[in-house]
Amino acid sequence: MHEIYNKFLKDSEKKAFDLEHRNKINFNISKYDAAVAKGKEQYKDIELARKRAAFLKHRIVNNLEKYLIEFAANFEKKGGKIIWALDKDEAIVEILALMRKYNAKHVVKSKSMTTEEIEINEALENNNIESLETDLGEYIVQIAGEKPYHIVTPAMHKSRDDIAQLFNEKFNTPRESTPEELTGFVRDKLRDKFVTADIGITGGNFLIADTGSVCLTENEGNGLMSMSFPKVHIAIVGVEKIIPSLIDLDLFWPLLSSYGTGQKITVYNSIISGPKQEDETDGPEDMYLILLENNRSEILKHDEQRVALTCIRCGACLNACPVYKNIGGHTYNTTYSGPIGSVITPYLKGIESYKHLSFASSLCGSCTDVCPLKIPIHELLLNNRNESVKSGYASSSEKISISSMKRFLSKRKRMDMFNAKVKNMGMQMIFKNAWGPRRELPKFAKKSFREMWMEKERK
Known about the structure:
- Helix 2 runs antiparallel to helix 12 (249-260).
- It is built from 24 helices and ten strands.
- The chain has helices at residues 2-16, 19-39, 46-61, 64-77, 88-101, 113-118, 120-126, 136-143, 160-171, 179-196, 222-228, 249-260, 296-300, 316-320, 322-327, 338-349, 351-354, 356-359, 366-370, 377-390, 396-409, 412-415, 420-435, 449-458, and strands at residues 81-85, 106-109, 130-133, 199-202, 206-208, 213-218, 232-238, 242-243, 268-272, 286-292.
- Among the domains are: 43-294, 3-Layer(aba) Sandwich (Rossmann fold); 407-458, no CATH class.
- The protein starts with a helix and ends with a helix.
- Strand 5 and strand 6 form a beta hairpin.
- It is an alpha/beta fold.
- The strands form two sheets. The chain has a six-stranded parallel sheet, sandwiched between helices. Strands 8-5-6-9 form a four-stranded mixed sheet.
- It is globular, with a radius of gyration of 25 Å.
């Protein structure tokens, strides 16, 4: 617990004062902000769309078992096979069993945060199975030996020069290569991998209950090729990704693209309803869907927090968050970073070890303002803080400090026992280290407001 917290503090300190990192992130997010502002112009009444989406997803989360049963029945009717995975370990065991069944040695994988959540690449590599990321951003961080930096933009922390240098070191491409040349190089390199892969692994943006379909939305076509070229397709999706009907996609897909990338709609949108049928020429011969629970029920147990499961992973709250823009995505040391990650990670990975994320927020409310599903993220962060205290995870020093402060501030006479000089000395002794070495503690005025008011009344 303390190791994770101390690492977070150390990494935050390092990144917050890394001016080169800050310049890269501010530049990339400024491009995002401009694109999103333009993307929202497609809506005549965007607030109405947000309200409808929020209402629909809220209803789904509160009736999750009903929609999951409907989805499973419809998916299996078309030949798909469902594997229910209680946690990360169960998911890995089932995936490795499928690898052995099909004697798989080479896997292509499209961008998916759920697969990052279960760390599938590491598990496959440990079993001598090549797992290749086919999304350009994911491929960049994979060859760099890193984790994705951002929910939507995995390589947001790298400039074009960083990427050109990385490719020069790994593949001996020209150091002065342009982004277009590097993209072409990766496209040629990956093309054969799609054709020869034994199994393709994808995530899923939405699961449609009434048709039993898995939906993928992307901009590069790698998801489409990951599931259509290999003979076996494995999709790994969180149980909360359900939407009721196919017609609901006209609400959710534009919202996801507008808030995620600033597009009216992403380039490739696929609806996959099981393996290849008898009258079809393309697609996998077998399709497996791993429905991942992985402690999502811990979030569902809390009436206030369960609304966090309506998140569609657009990444808007990360781009709006002043803390994220200063400390960066890797500092969180979690799959889901930023404000929404700080809400759900303590439940997914343990509140005792990750409660600090909910305190690493200015509570400015920007995350709530930009969320397309109207999730009150900053309020949920406060709820998390309260939950961590009620669960007994507050330190002894925090308990003593709060108790003493409550006692001191609850009576006016106690507040007036000491003059400003003594109060300032006490502040220095108690709070100097907590306040940080780069900030000066605020000082008590020589006269309190009450003293000035009393003087005015006497005059």
